[in-house]
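Quick note —
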Amino acid sequence: MKEGWEIDQIKDVCSLQNGFAFKSKDYSSSGARVIRITNVQNGYIADNTPRYIALSSLTNYKKFQINFDDILLSLTGDVGRVGRFPNHLLPALLNQRVCRIKNVDEARILKDFLFYFLDSHLFEDNAVATAKGAAQKNISTKSIGTFQIPIPPLSEQEEIVKVLDTAFAAIDQAKANIEQNIANAKELFQSKLNQIFSQKGEGWVETMLGRVDKLEAFQNQ
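Predicted structure written out below.
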């Protein structure tokens, strides 16, 4: 370990909250999203097959209301996935088997640094190795709380976060460029395809598809 770095348990720098066991009969056609393990992906929160609780019921679940930029963890299935909650999916509620990171001790650890640690293969591999169950993995917030985390001085944490922010911004831009290149290639292909079939070549004959089928059937007799 580098000089000046400490090692502590996760529970000593933050608290971990379990979600509420919402039942399907509680669901509504619209309202506040119920954030389940399927929504917590690797590094982000996905709006997969959303389920809702009526807004009129929100006051009954104040403890489980999610805030912008909350760090969420998956506790079942693909355990150890982590994401930060985006503003555009609010209001939202924390479902069972999803953990929320709360009360980060920012006098010791930056929230951004903590997120990057939780988003690392080191943490995820530890979660998978510690989880119980064969067909479906499960891990508890109590177990996660005992995981060790390196804690550099705050100044070094800031530098590490800056480097990682820059790296991930570059990755996001590269992905965007690739997606745009694919879209441009598809557009070019369609343009060439339309160009080919809109210009008649010498000896080309137009007919209906049904007639082509009948001609092929006659030739195969």
